[in-house]
Amino acid sequence: MAEKRDVVIVGAGPVGFMTALGLARQGIDVTLIDSEKDIVNSPRAAIYHPVTLELLDRVGVIDDCMDIAFHCKRLGMRYPDTGEIIEFNYARAALPDQKYNFNLHFGQHELAAIIGRHLAALPNTRVHWEHRLESLEQQGDRVLLGIETPEGRKEISASWVIGTDGARSTTRRLLGMEFEGFTWPDRFVATNVEVDLTSLGYFDTNMVIDPVNWAVIARLNRGHLWRLTYGEDGALDEETMWDRIPEHYRAFMPPETEYRIDQAAPYRCHERCAPSFRVDRVLMAGDAAHACNPCGGLGLTTGFMDANALFQVLGAVIHGHVGEEALDHYAAERRRIFLEITSPSAQHFKTQMSQKDPRKRAEQRETARKQMENPSSATMSAVISRRIVGDPMPVGRAMAL
Ligand SMILES: Cc1cc2nc3c(=O)[nH]c(=O)nc-3n(C[C@H](O)[C@H](O)[C@H](O)COP(=O)(O)OP(=O)(O)OC[C@H]3O[C@@H](n4cnc5c(N)ncnc54)[C@H](O)[C@@H]3O)c2cc1C
Asked: 20 to 30 A Cα–Cα from 232, which one of 186, 201, 213, 353?
C-alpha cells in the first residue's frame, strides 16, 4: 500500500531544501527524500550573491547564515601576465533598493543544513535519508514513486513531485528527457585549503585570468580556509589528480608557502538544460533542470531562483489562487532564464578566465577596467544574478511566508 503525500521533493541538496521550506512556510505538507545518508559535503558552491541573500532573508534563515559565513566586499581580477589587479567593490555596484551589498561565503552543505533545521521546526515536514528514487509513474491526479530504502522497496503516492536530484537527475531520466548541451573539455579541480592567502596579497575573492593557470580563489571562513579552483586537461588521469595539486599551487603561491589541503574533488562541467521543467505533475528545479560551469557562481544562484519561483507558484496552485497552467509559466520562464542569461554568462566568464589570445586578453582587461569604474553596467556576476531572478510568477495574490 503506497503512503499518501502532498508534495514529494526528490533530492535534499540546497535547492530541494529551499523549495521544501518555501512550501512548508505556506502550510503545505512536504516530504523530502534523498539517496544519501546525509547532506552531501563535497567542495561545490561557496559564493552567494545579494539576490540569494535576499531570498535567504525572505524565508527566515539569513541570520543563521550571517553568523557563520564570511562577508566578502571586494573582488580582484588578477592578470599574472602583466601583474595587474583590477579591484571591484560590490557596494559600488549595488542598486538603490538592494538590501545586501556584499556576498556571503560558506559551503553549500552548511547552507543546506541551516535551511534543513528551519524546515524541521515546521509541522508536516519530513526528510527521509537513504531513500533512492527508482521509478515514477503519473496516474491521473497523482504520481506513484518507487523508492529503494535500507528496509526494501516502498511506494509513495504524491499529488506533486519536484525533482531537485542534481545534474545526474533520476527524475529527469525517468521522464525520458535528454540533457541537451555540451561538456567542457577541461577538468575543474576544487580544493579547500588552509593557507594564509591574505598575507600574499589576495582579495577575499579573486579571478585569476590566465590561459593555463586560471583559477577562482575565495576565502571560505573567518579563519584561513580558502577555496582554490583551477582547471587542468580533462585527458589527464583523474586518479593522479592529487599528485598534481602542489604543481598547480605553485602558480598561485610561492613554493615555501605552508598549506594543508582539507578537501579536493574533480568535476566535469557542463552547459546543459532539460527540454522542459514540467511534465504534468512532475516539476524540476536546480541542477536537475540545468547545469553550468561554476565560473561566476551562477549555478546555485539560478537553482535558488527556480526554488523561489516554484514554491510561490506551486503554493498558489495548491491553495487554489491560480490554475495549474501557472506551472507552465514557471517551466518556460525558468528555462528561458537559464538559456538566455545563466549559461551564456557562465560561458563568458569561463572563456574570459582562460582566454588564450593575448590581444583579446588585453582588450578584456581594458573592458574590465572601464566596467570597474562604472560598475552598474558591469558584466559582473553580482549584477547578472539580479537578472537571474526572472519575471514575477503568476501567483494571484501576495503570498506571506
Ligand atoms: C566546484 C564548484 C563550485 C561551485 N560554486 C558555486 C558557487 O559558488 N555559487 C553557485 O551559485 N553555484 C556554484 N556551484 C554550483 C552548485 O554547486 C550547484 O548548482 C548546486 O549543487 C545545485 O544544487 P541542487 O540542490 O540542485 O543539486 P545537488 O546539490 O546536486 O543535490 C542533489 C541531491 O539529490 C540527491 N539525489 C540524487 N539522485 C537521487 C535519487 N535517485 N533519489 C533521491 N535523491 C537523489 C543527491 O544525493 C543530492 O543530495 C558550484 C559547482 C561546482 C562543481
From this structure: 201
